[in-house]
């Protein structure tokens, strides 16, 4: 899963980036509204953290522009502690949730997980396909109750496919959602990760749809 942070406070922005990367996300960081709007309009993200008090272009304007452009990416806005008017304005402009500063990073991450789940039609924090379980809260993966150790990129790929279970996901889409902007993206590595996941979870867990991409389906009879 790939996230965009738009935050002009350097310490807070880097703190959030480190925490979210530690939680298994690919993260891009923009430090003003102009850059944030550009990235949100031209790159693919699973969710955005948007501060409202930004230089160049304020957060509400950025959000309003995205929505008018047809961008439906879930957006969590950061507001001042007691600014109820900012909360109302953000929600009216198209935000999906908000967190008031100062906040606990754990709460922000939990809210992001919920936004991403809801956007992909998943209500539970635990994603399942047959006897495979991925707990988005702990980052643990099990098969038939046994823990399975995945690398960070294998986890990201499996998580994205589970969030979009039953759908065909192209290599390009996977690349856009599991790597951050600065990563050297190579489509051949996707096949490597898929092969590794099949070795750990079973040869039929991910289906290759020739010419289209990959699909993770609920096993027949499950």
From TrEMBL:
DNA-binding region per Swiss-Prot/TrEMBL record: 124-218
Taxonomic placement: Bacteria, Pseudomonadati, Pseudomonadota, Alphaproteobacteria, Sphingomonadales
One GO term of the biological process aspect: regulation of DNA-templated transcription
Molecular-function GO term, any one: phosphorelay response regulator activity
Modified residues (4-aspartylphosphate): 51
GO annotations of cellular component type: cytosol; protein-DNA complex
Name of the featured protein: Response regulator transcription factor
InterPro entries in the cross-refs: CheY-like_superfamily, OmpR/PhoB-type_DNA-bd, Sig_transdc_resp-reg_C-effctor, Sig_transdc_resp-reg_receiver, WalR-like, WH-like_DNA-bd_sf
Superkingdom of the source species: Bacteria
Ranges of residues in domain Response regulatory: 2-116
Keywords noted in UniProt: DNA-binding, Phosphoprotein, Transcription, Transcription regulation, Two-component regulatory system
PANTHER family noted in UniProt: REGULATOR OF RPOS, RESPONSE REGULATOR PROTEIN CARR
Cross-referenced SMART domains: REC, Trans_reg_C
Span of the signal peptide: none
CDD domains per the UniProt record, alphabetical: REC_OmpR_EcPhoP-like (cd19934), trans_reg_C (cd00383)
Domain OmpR/PhoB-type: start-end pairs: 124-218
